[in-house]
Automatic annotation (TrEMBL):
Stated name of the protein: Gustatory receptor 7
Topology within the bilayer: Multi-pass membrane protein
Listed GO CC annotations: plasma membrane
Membrane-crossing segments per the record: 51-70
Keyword entries, A-Z: Cell membrane, Membrane, Receptor, Transmembrane, Transmembrane helix
Nuclease keyword on record: no
Organism: Propsilocerus akamusi
Family in the record: Belongs to the insect chemoreceptor superfamily. Gustatory receptor (GR) family. Gr5a subfamily.
Alphabetical list of Pfam families matching this protein: Trehalose_recp
Main location: membrane
Listed GO MF terms: sweet taste receptor activity
Compartments, record wording: Cell membrane
Amino acid sequence: MFKKTCELLARADEAISMLVMVSLSRNLFFICADLLDVRRSQIRSLSNLTFYWYSLIYLILRTFFVYICASEINDESKKSVEVFRAVPRASWCIEIKRFNDDVSCDIIALSGWKFFYITREIVLKVCGSIITYELVLLQFSDEFSTINDDPCANSTFN
């Protein structure tokens, strides 16, 4: 039964892996772009500010929860290994040994066009990458904000 489920997951992954890749890329791009816009834009009205933060938080939470739910596939596949480890090795037969090797060695998860597999670790790495990216952008935007953006202001022809 488990092998049939893995085959079904592999077929589903073949069908939607490109969609997963595009979805994750799009969501990460818009999260980073919206976070960058916080520093650049001057949001003046309360309604615009409320809408901006609501949409940004909604985008972040939606992306996070979709990929946490997708990573549950990998987490559930690892639970059978815990059951096998509770059984003494002396009572294992050759089929159980092979099955344990298959489950513990294979990556059973959805993929993003076979570039990466959606696991809990990758979700946390992506969150860390977004935070690092934003910290770097904040440092560079502080450096560039001290430079006057008006090229005519420093002109000697005034």
